[in-house]
Specification:
The structure holds three protein chains of three kinds.
Chain A: E1 6-11, H1 23-33, E2 39-45, H2 51-63, E3 68-73, H3 76-89, E4 97-101, H4 103-107, H5 113-133, E5 140-143, E6 148-151, H6 155-166, E7 171-174, E8 189-190, E9 195-196, H7 197-210, E10 214-217, E11 220-228, E12 231-238, H8 253-257, E13 261-264, E14 272-275, E15 277-278, E16 290-291, H9 297-301, H10 306-310, E17 325-331, E18 333-336, E19 340-342, E20 359-361, H11 362-369, E21 390-397, H12 412-427, E22 430-435, H13 445-454, E23 458-461, E24 464-468, E25 480-486, E26 491-497, E27 499-504, E28 506-508, H14 512-519, E29 546-548, H15 558-578, E30 580-583, E31 588-590, E32 610-613, E33 618-621, H16 631-635, E34 641-643, H17 648-659
Parallel strand pairs in A: 1-2, 1-3, 3-4, 6-7, 6-18, 7-10, 18-29, 20-27, 21-22, 21-27, 22-23
Antiparallel strand pairs in A: 5-30, 8-9, 11-12, 12-17, 13-14, 15-16, 19-28, 24-25, 25-26, 31-34, 32-33
Helix pairs in contact in A: 1-5, 2-3, 5-17, 6-7, 6-15, 11-12, 12-13
Chain B: E1 11-15, H1 20-29, E2 38-42, H2 51-59, E3 64-69, H3 80-97, E4 105-109, H4 115-132, H5 137-143, H6 152-155
Chain C: E1 2-5, H1 16-29, E2 32-35, H2 47-50, H3 52-69, E3 71-74, E4 77-80, H4 83-98, H5 100-111, E5 123-126, H6 127-135, H7 137-143, E6 152-156, H8 178-185, E7 189-190, H9 204-207, H10 209-225, E8 230-233, H11 236-244, H12 246-253, E9 261-263, H13 264-271, H14 289-292
Parallel strand pairs in C: 1-2, 1-4, 4-5, 6-7, 6-8, 8-9
Classes of the chains: A alpha/beta, B alpha/beta, C alpha/beta.
Amino acid sequence: MTEERIGVYVCHCGTNIAGTVDVEEVSKWAGEKLKKDGVVVSRDYKFMCSSLGQELIQADIKEKSLNRVVVAACSPHLHEKTFRTACQKADMNPYLCEMVSIREQVSWVHTDKRVATEKAKALISGGVLRVAKDEPLEAIHVPINPATLIVGAGIAGIQAALEIADSGFPVYLVERDSSIGGHMAQFDKTFPTLDCAACILTPKMVDAGDHPNITLLTLSEIEQVDGYVGNFTVTIRKGARYVKEDVCTGCGICIEKCPIKVIDTNFEAGLGYRKAIYRNFPQAIPKYPAIDTEHCTYFLHGKCKACQLFCPTQPNSIDFEQQDEVIRIEVGNIILATGYDLFNSRRIPQYGYGRLANVFTSLEFERMCNAAGPTEGRVFLRDGITQPKTVGIIHCVGSRDKHYNNYCSVICCMQSLKFAHLVKERTGAEVYEFYIDMRTAFKDYDEFYQRVLQEGVNFIRGRVAEATDAARLPGEEGKLIIQAEDTLIGKQRRIPVDMVILSAGLEPRADSEEVAKKFGISCSSNGFFIEKHPKLDPISTLTEGIFIAGACQGPKDIPASVTQGAAAAARVLGRIQSKELALEPIRASVIEERCSGCRICNDLCPFNAITFNEELNVTNINQALCQGCGTCVAACPSGAISGTQFSDEQILAQLDGILSLPINSGKVKTLESVPA
Amino acid sequence: MTDQTNFEPMVVGFTCNWCSYRAADLAGMSRIKYPPNIRLIRLMCSGRLDPTFVLKAFEGGADGVLISGCHPGECHYLEQNYKMLKRFLLLRKMLIQMGIEPDRLKLLWASAAEGARFAEEVTKMVETVRSLGPLNWSKVVDSNGGHATVIPVLAKEEVTA
Amino acid sequence: MKYGYYPGCSLERNAIAYQQSTMAIAKPLGIEFIEVEDWNCCGATEYFAIDALAAYALVGRNLALASQQKLNGDRNQLVAPCSACFLNLYKTDHYMAEDNKLNANVNEALAAGGLHYDPGTVKVRHLLDIIVNDIGYEAIAERVTKPLFNLRVAPYYGCMIVRPASIESFDNPEYPTSLDKLTHSLGAEVVDFPLKAHCCGGHMTQISENTALELIRRLLKNAADYDADMIVTLCPMCQLNLDAYQENVNKHFGTNFHIPVLYFTQLMGLAFGLSANNLGLGKEFINAKPALDKISSEPLKKQRRKKRPPKETLPMPTMPEES
């Protein structure tokens, strides 16, 4: 092996580092004291990541024949790629470049300059000893299957599917419900422009349903995901519809003839009815109805078959014998657009939902306003005939409340304003909005708020204590009374109303944890899928090849969901176009001659990368499946598994380095944990 | 015990790449201050933590070791932090037999969003180790003919995570 | 099941009916209460506002005695039937655990009497809590021999047993339901009483009677609006205010309420077939007899068959109940 020639580069990051760490001193120290460890040059520079900084390193690699580089600057999560690429351009193997974080871990979190400088030295020492043990590696190149799986066919999923399909690549669009469209299909009007949701959504649904590049799989759920970026194998269970899609014309006679009427808790949010053979709404895509076996008389009692009897197609479209189908598909990338669940308003018993008839959820009210909904768009009390004269709308139900969800559900303010407008337009009723803060950011939203203000809606700023039917004062008899503190006038107020609408928050899907696990991604503490970076990469996940779009990543309105869907599609298209992908070569491998065949490691891999070769009595690790966590490396009692880029030698060398300088170099000020 | 007033504990921290290292990054980005007594080593996953690393750290002069990984159920590699948890529990029992107070080893679940918590827990850890005093493990063992002294009071302690 | 028992002053005087009925139902339920020896007043509700340390020390003494007497070995659970006593004991233990300074101060005061209390050593519970959670609704229903069919009961919790919400409580702090379920398991018809956790006025009857009367009026009116035959409660203060001040309310507002207010333990005793004398019945101001006479031995056949709602009626919410 050739002798190590290491260059150390200490970044000032303007004053971000230099303000707290004596960078000149550190650089000088490294040049002198670490000479024995192979350091041949050590420099400091204002901005190492700038093109001039990079050129500085590249020039040294060429002129001083460096074969290893340590950059002491920010977190490797920010610029590791930058510096590795720079080294590669100077013909050095990029994996022989190490970063030491002296900004996030030193200058930004400590205040005493002298102690911070010492810590920076120790960390650099660790980096230098480690880089000496680094091995030249090659990125792993994997081919990308051009097909894409999109889970969830709400507006985000549909948008993503159309973007990819329009570019000429195949898409599998998988939806759990019997038809696509998601929550948006349930709405009547969309804020702030008040265009009809159906008018703008149905054309997209039709496109997605007809597209030659889109395979639509409804009533379907993902069972299993195997493989890795570029080459996923996905097992899908396509639920039986009991209607033959290749024969059915979607005429709807079966629905008309079905004698069983049940409350539709799904699409109608419990406010309306559907038949036991049903489709969510007349323009549903796909147009074929589905049989709900839980309520169908035939499935319950073995007779009826009215739908089959009246089906006019030849051959008959109804097939009671249909079974679930298990489909396996190969895809290169996956976009999750699984949406949200509505907060269960019964969790706040003092708002009376479920006890008091005229308390409605936002989704119930959406259905009520929808011309195709249970009241054909008329605003009625629960009796279905009386128009309300006063309506109270409660914001932040289940949101911004430590008892339920801490986060803001984003859409409720605008949605509530829309409701106020619709109530006024359709009934002329007096409307009271109870809000905590009015959040109307984004294009044309605040203008809409101003408009609703002009329309004479009353706004009361304060969290509602309760909605009750316990009348106390004259004028309250027979009404629902909303009690809230009006924080602007500093008074408790009791507003008698006929109808209460709860603007319920958005929650992660009840099974989001399970789904996340299936796809190997994670959920944040509030249950939404975690993105790779909250600002700079809100559509990727930490698992390569899995993207997220729409409300499954966090509460979001329609424009934002569409944007994310399109963005995720663009990212996938980029991947498909490049045909292959370079992956970090962090992998575990077995040194067969050292393996004793003890099989301790065999059960440790959640990716099934470890197999046992009975014949040779040794363990094998599949490089394509290995994700590089290193758990097996740590477990091997014979030291027979080595983990590239995180080998025992590298880690122990780094440990030696960071322990080489004591902390005890004088009085250290501690306990300065001031909140930021 | 040596002079406590000038004692500055050396704590080595092992973090995973995905949650806890990012928690440290976030603490930095939020400019939350914590004692400079901790020096971090990044692993890809807390599951990579070979118990040997911890012993080597103590041998090399560390007074405390922090192991940090993703919260249970949030592991980037699905469940490898549970495997680390098992090692951690065993390791704490072993430390007692080796004459090392188990509180010198701390496990911290930290998500990438918990920068403030990371800083807070590091501060607590440093203070815990400070109150325990210097370890000087290799010297103590060397001076005792290579034998460690079991900590008798703690030997029966039920270790909980 | 054995529990430490802290009766509190009320149960020895005005709420003697609560005491008698509690003791009466303990036996069939297999509960043994061991009273704390030499207990003192809990300070009731106002004393905390006057001298916090003295108030905490007053309560601390009871906790110290309970922990010292090891009323039930290691399972040191202390039951208080009075809501104010329960809350004071519970929050003193809680705040002492939370606040080192308070803990030190209280213990300094206790030391003067040769006592000491480590917060957390006694688990303070309300009578209702142990009855619904340790005994359970099913076990209670099994012991019912004379179900309270046809009696419409408004369950009234008052404001103290499930609050403050920041302290862990055994029921929902805004809309508790344990007493509802308990009453239901006795066979009674339960009124969904909206004001179930509102204030009864407490000691306001002594300080600002008009304020108190208004608070009491609301509760009575609401119970009457819901056609309740009686209000059932679990707190001596609530019982006293609603019962003893009912006539004052009628006088003050020109109303004509006659709603008896009983303790839940009295109803349990009746349902278990115990004699009214042992349950302290008849001690109430508003005679409960007319209401109790409504109890029938058979569940009344639903007179009017449930009329089908008109077809335009929208279905009621289908979101699942919060478990």
